[in-house]
Structures are given as structure tokens and as C-alpha cells.
Amino acid sequence: MKAVGSVLSLLHSGVAVVVMVRTALALISSDRLALLAMRDQSPPALRVAKSLIQGKGLFTGEPVRARRKLGEFTGERISTREAAKRARGAKRIVIVDVTETEAIDGSVRGGPFQYINHSCTANVFIRIAYGRIEFYARRDIKAGEELTCDYGLSYHEGELACRCGSTECKKFI
Ligand SMILES: [Zn+2]
């Protein structure tokens, strides 16, 4: 009966009721905004094809506006300790650290982003937050362009020669 009492006291106080209604409206409009944002942020059509840099690469099948979300890095979630073990002696490394202790190995049940190549002048940036590895357009990207990101500090530890071909190439990954 305590709950009923508190509802009644809210109804008796005009201010409280107004606040409650406004909160409900705010919730509805923010939900609608979230839906609109999701529609706008639907990932563009991507395809994996022979790269201009090396091996396979990731390409966009449609024009992409700057800051649009392109997708997420998926694969097996492992510890960074296991990641370091797997990276040792591996020919192809597709592991991204999520935190200091957690990483994702894109070569196991991974999606198309395991094929994104490194470039010293990348057109995509990585955002790592809340346990997710997300990719966003750094600039407007034309349909058919190869997507590239800056690997930053990599498991290659600066020993892999970079072939991105950019005039600002740092030569090693
Ligand atoms: Zn380079």
C-alpha cells in the first residue's frame, strides 16, 4: 500500500506530475532519435577483394560520408597473453587489443574487418570503447575505394615493411 500512497502524493503535487510527463516525453523523443540515428548509421555495403597494398583488402561498395560508422571488428575474444602467444611466429596477425587484458582475434570467426589494411594516410579510424572495436570514416570516401586504417602500435613491433604507397609513409608497421 506504500506504493499507492506515493503515487497519490505525486498526483497531489502539480509540479511532480508535470516533471513525470516531461520525462516520459523526453524518453519517447530520445528513442525516436536513436532509431533515426541507427537508420543513418546502417553500415555501408563492403566487399573483400584483392588489395592494392597487399593480399586481400576491404573496399566500400558505396560512397561513405566522413564520420559514418563502417562496422566492427569481430572474432574470438581472447586474453592479451594468448594474443601475444598467437602473434609469435604467425605469418598473418589479425588481433586487436580491446583493453590491457582482452583482445579479439579476427582470424577466428572474424568478419570483413580482418582484411582492412594499414596505411600511413588512412581513410578510416578505429574507436575502441565499451569492449567494442568500431571503424569510422575519417573523411568522405568514394565508392570502390579501399578502406585503410592506422594500425598504430602493432604486434609486428615496427618490423614489418609498410607498402601503403603514401607520400607520408613511415616505412614500417
Ligand atoms: Zn605506409
- Kindly state the number of beta strands: 10
List the total number of helices. Answer: 3
CATH homologous superfamily descriptor of the largest domain:
SET domain
Count up the domains. 2
The unique ligands bound to this protein are:
zinc ion
Ranges with pLDDT <50 over ≥5 residues?
1-28
**Percent in helix:** 25-40%
CATH architecture of the largest domain: Beta Complex
Residue fraction in strands: 15-25%
Order of helices and strands: HHEEEEHEEEEEE
Estimated structural class: alpha+beta
Mean pLDDT: 80
CATH topology annotation of the largest domain:
Beta-clip-like
* End-to-end separation: 67 Å
Name of the top-level CATH class of the largest domain: Mainly Beta
Label the overall shape.
Answer: globular
Question: Could you describe the largest sheet, including whether it forms a barrel?
Answer: 4 strands, mixed
Radius of gyration: 23 Å
| Sequence of strands across the biggest β-sheet | 1-2-10-7
